[in-house]
Fold this sequence. Notes:
- The protein contains 17 helices and 21 strands.
- By secondary structure, the chain is α/β, with parallel strands linked by helices.
- The protein has 3 domains: 5-47 and 61-82 and 243-325 and 468-538, FAD/NAD(P)-binding domain; 101-238, no CATH class; 326-462.
- Strand 6 and strand 7 (97-100) form a beta hairpin.
- Helix 1 (15-26) packs parallel to helix 10, helix 1 (15-26) packs parallel to helix 17 (514-526) and helix 6 packs across helix 9.
- The two termini are 15 Å apart.
Amino acid sequence: MANQKYDAIVIGGGHNGLTHAAYLARGGKKVLVLERRHIVGGAAVTEEVFPGFKFSVCSYVVSLLRPEIIRDLDLPRHGLEILPLDGTFTPMLNGDYLWRVNDHGKSRREIARHSKLDAEAYEEFGKAMQAMCRFVKPILSMVPPDPTSLNPKDLMKLLFLGKRFQGLDAQAKYDQVQLMTMSAIDFLDQWFETDVLKATMSASGIIGTFLGVRSPGTAYVLLHHYMGEIDGAFRAWGFARGGTGAISNAIAGAALELGVEIRTKAGISKILVKNGKANGVVLENGDEIYADVISSSVDPRLTFTKFLEPSELPSDFLEEVNRYKFRGSSGKVNLALDALPNFKAMPGEGLHLRGAISISPSVEYMERAYDDAKYGNFSRNPYIDCVIPSLTDPSLAPPGKHVMSCFVQYAPYKLAPGLHWDTEKEKFGDTVINTIAQHAPNIKDIILHRQIVTPLDLEREFGLSEGNIFQGELSLEQLFFLRPVPGWAQFRTPIKNLYMCGSAAHPGGGIMGAPGRLAAVEVLKDIPGSGKKNKGKVA
């Protein structure tokens, strides 16, 4: 099989790899996607873990999927349907609750129950965040400039950003600088007084980072998640009908139609380099496949330290790669339920179960969860973000039964000396269920099956180094022209014809597809000429 030749090989069939492949095929390239697992999707997959119960095993909500990708690849025609996720319900230990919904007026009335001042501030906060989102949003669709370059294109981009900043009014400039430097809680403290409101809102600032809600820099992560948009509506989150895997399957369908070839159970062991140029890959079974371009949608550690020899890369570049922070901090517990959980704060079935259920009762609670993680333990009382997607999409569970997805922080990849995830896994699952039981006591009686996913499982099964769901922390020193490595944020690498197109590249993690699309634009600039489109196939 050594004589196979493609225009491009994409390593990894996650949603970014598939997006990248589809755009390259739109540009007339003959593209092969190689996926190590038995299905495509990477961390955006739906799997029938127990008979009749389909889980979004890892990533579980969609918020940042770029509208231009939905449009360019015509994803609705390939089966993409987003169902709205209505609101966030936060039960409190004193029996009260906070329930914000997508109806702004209702949310204001609910917040006014806790604080009339906060209800007023909520309106202003929303406007301020929208203004900041509008400032940052073009960056998600931009190839980062290199600030050290004298290239006119880079200088024009820097000038564009400078002018945009200058165009903000004084308050917006002030807010923007604060967002880049403050902790989520310090930022929210300036707006609100209600503890449970600040705790729940601050949760967006820590997802995918090994930081606490009081750690500087988490305010920007809060904005990153606040930019969630579906069909252009800010702050709209949702479920994909059929689970998160349906997003990957829709992109794969578009890619196949454009002529992409997709192979599963095709892990690679090595990237082939000749005279400083990437020109092929060696599969785990020993097969060699050649291409003019190799694009990696897996993370920098795998790409540069597992698939390449150290001698093939500049030593200063390798040092930066080794400094790149993963520090996975989250796990998942997926539950198959015989009935719905019954929350003490709001008993019975109701609309509050159709949105996110946030176990984030106070700021102190959130910070104490981080304290445990700092010393190498999973949180004794973790922050948990629960959703019950089977209420909105009954196809995920047998009639009358449900699936519940619990995203958990903190679950540090590196545990304290003497502890190992293989022996701590079940205890972690018990802790999560016990925490939910403080608010919904019937939970233990209705669990039919449970799947526990630790950071080590994310690394072993899904190829996410140290279990980081974003292929590297979304911290300020690892964003924009610093992601993944300073000087190499434009999807290219020190090896000619080798590109990065996954979440470790700009603009980062989440199911947005932007790294895959932007990297394809750069590849097509570098590799002129186009071939004929052909019907794709999946093997």
